[in-house]
Amino acid sequence: MNRRRPSLELAEQVAGKIGLSFSASRKEAVATAIERVMVRRRIGEGRSLLDRLGLDEYLTDDVISAVTVAETHFFRGPEQFELIRQTILPELLRRRSGGPPLRFWSLGCATGEEPYSLAVLCEEEGLLNDVRIDAADISRRVLAAAKAAEYGEWALRNTDPRLRQRYFTSCEGRFRLNERLRRQVDFAHLNLGTDALPAPEKRLADFDLILCRNVLVYLEASAVRRIARQLLACLSDGGWLLTAPTDPPLWKYAPFETSITPAGIVYRRIMAPDARKSPTACVAPVRRQTGDPAACVPRARARAAASRKTTGDDTAKAIARQIRSRFDLGEPLEAARLAARAIERHPLSAELHFLEGVSRMASGETDAATAALRRVAYLDGKLAAAQFFLGVCLKDSDPQAALRALENALSSCLSRSPREHVALMPEATAGHLAQRARREIATIRQHLGSEAG
């Protein structure tokens, strides 16, 4: 059968037909995935594929599964689950004392590991009867797997052995979640690209916590802009939204109250008009032993305030503090602009190039971020923070180069004491960054292995 490779134009048409949109960096991979489906289904022409989409439910779900990324595991992003346990849950319970159950929503839930992780966390805290968990995904295939709640060893790779023993039944290499936790999660089909939100008639409104992680990173800016407004509208007053560190920032698209924490960016729906007094909220990501009321101030901002009193710092360091302050205030575009201007005067400052890189990354400018982080690596190849973020930037476009950068970051961290703070990332320790690098490396290797298979 003679057939040309599906074009990027066909990939865009298919995406539009199934209600999806993809960033420019993903379109080549989407075209390749569509080609594989057409070969497997013996569909010779793109027009035939387009005509059948929407009418043939199995074909439509096959295409959706092929062009979306369903990689997940239990307690993925442990820092965010710790933030939920130590900060978000207590705050919600204080406000909702004696009221109706809390409502959580896992968007892009894939095979269910994320919402079930929430259920396990709530059960561990003795709160399972006080919450209702909804979960949604565009793929009916993965939703069926989620409802079955049976997992392999890989899905539980970051799960505490105690939790695995307590909440799962093992049988022939598979692990089945217990019935009590399965009943706490309601799964539904949802297409963020086409379905109207909020939808109170479907109970898709007034959520106290929404997790939409590793979903928006794959979408084009216009879709992200629309979805940001929809997610804000789906939150209850004071409700929380968590995205993944690699997802694009949402504060420029909807009036969220925004915080930058060691667990990533946190968004909230403002509770009252006077909550607009500050563009960023102060969120304590972990319980602290000190009684100091300033303990919840993000560390980078506290360092910037303290360093203003210090004399004798060189100019580049002083400018870097200003840039970090803008970033902490939720203004990555302004931080990137300041960094680019400063680099003109201090072209050999690795810190300024690094700050431009992470600011571009937070703004969704992956190519510009990659270029900036490559310059850091050129100036000082031993900076683990730069190697780590370079690897994160490259993992979709050049996974082999991403592996090299992440392995460099891991090697650098392992050569230091686990408690030593990382240069350019003083809020992180070598041990913490090494764990993050290992997780990213494992994810990339799994993807490369599945493609080879």
Structure at a glance:
InterPro entries: Bact_Chemotaxis_MeTrfase, CheR_C, CheR_MeTrfase, SAM-dependent_MTases_sf, TPR-like_helical_dom_sf. The protein is 49% helix and 13% strand. The protein is an alpha/beta fold and 453 residues long.
Q: Can you walk through the features of this model?
A:
The chain has about 450 residues and is of the alpha/beta class. It has three domains: about 60 residues; about 200 residues, Rossmann fold, CATH 3.40.50; about 160 residues, Tetratricopeptide repeat domain (Serine Threonine Protein Phosphatase 5, Tetratricopeptide repeat, Alpha Horseshoe). It contains 18 helices and twelve strands. The strands form three sheets. A seven-stranded mixed beta sheet has the order 6-2-1-7-8-10-9. It has a three-stranded antiparallel beta sheet with strand order 3-5-4. It has a two-stranded antiparallel ribbon with strand order 11-12. Strand 4 and strand 5 form a beta hairpin. Helix 12 packs parallel to helix 14. The longest helix has 23 residues. The radius of gyration is 23 Å and the shape is globular. This is Chemotaxis protein CheR. It holds the Pfam family CheR. Keywords: Methyltransferase, S-adenosyl-L-methionine, Transferase. It comes from Rhizobium meliloti. GO terms for molecular function: S-adenosylmethionine-dependent methyltransferase activity.
Q: What's the CATH architecture name of the largest domain? A: 3-Layer(aba) Sandwich
Distance between the termini: 23 Å
CATH topology of the largest domain: Rossmann fold
Question: What is the total domain count?
Answer: 3
